[in-house]
Write a structure and sequence with these properties.
The protein has 142 residues and is α/β, with parallel strands linked by helices. It has one domain: 2,3-Dihydroxybiphenyl 1,2-Dioxygenase, domain 1. Helix content is 15%, strand content 35%.
Length: 142
């Protein structure tokens, strides 16, 4: 079977507060808005630039409707320096777990956005299994 998926194009999340969500992604993670979705003159969402033609799509959803919606498990964002990324997140008063080396040989830290969407920060190492080739096994330790 040939590989038809190139990479993640975007992940769509629902927000009960568009302004707080934009501020979180912009100020805490440094992700800028690419464009906004408007309907009848009202802001209903936006696209965020997650780098290298990948995006996070955000749409307004009232808090009461969250229980009726499928949840996203998490969004994984690759970072260039885990220590700096965790420090930046914490500098904005957002709780982030200490970095730990995952079973796949990749550094990780976890946090959540204002809507409760889990975010995994990810820093590859020279031992990351993602680059070891197909057919490898990652024995998890969680």
């Amino acid at each position: 079977m040939s590989k038809i998926i190139k990479k993640i194009a975007h992940v769509c999340i629902f927000a009960h507060d568009l302004e707080a969500t934009e501020k979180f992604y912009r100020d805490v993670l440094g992700i800028e808005v690419v464009f906004r979705f408007m309907k009848a003159g009202k802001l209903i969402g936006y696209y965020l630039d997650a780098g290298e033609a990948t995006h996070i799509e955000v749409f307004q959803k009232d808090a009461a409707a969250f229980a009726e919606t499928n949840a996203i498990n998490h969004i994984c964002l690759e970072v260039t320096n885990m220590d700096e990324a965790v420090a930046q997140v914490r500098a904005h008063g957002v709780s982030a777990l200490d970095k730990k080396l995952g079973a796949d040989g990749t550094w990780q830290s976890w946090l959540a956005d204002p809507n409760g969407v889990k975010i995994e920060l990810f820093e590859y190492t020279d031992k990351s299994l993602q680059f070891a080739g197909a057919g490898g096994v990652c024995e998890v330790n969680w």
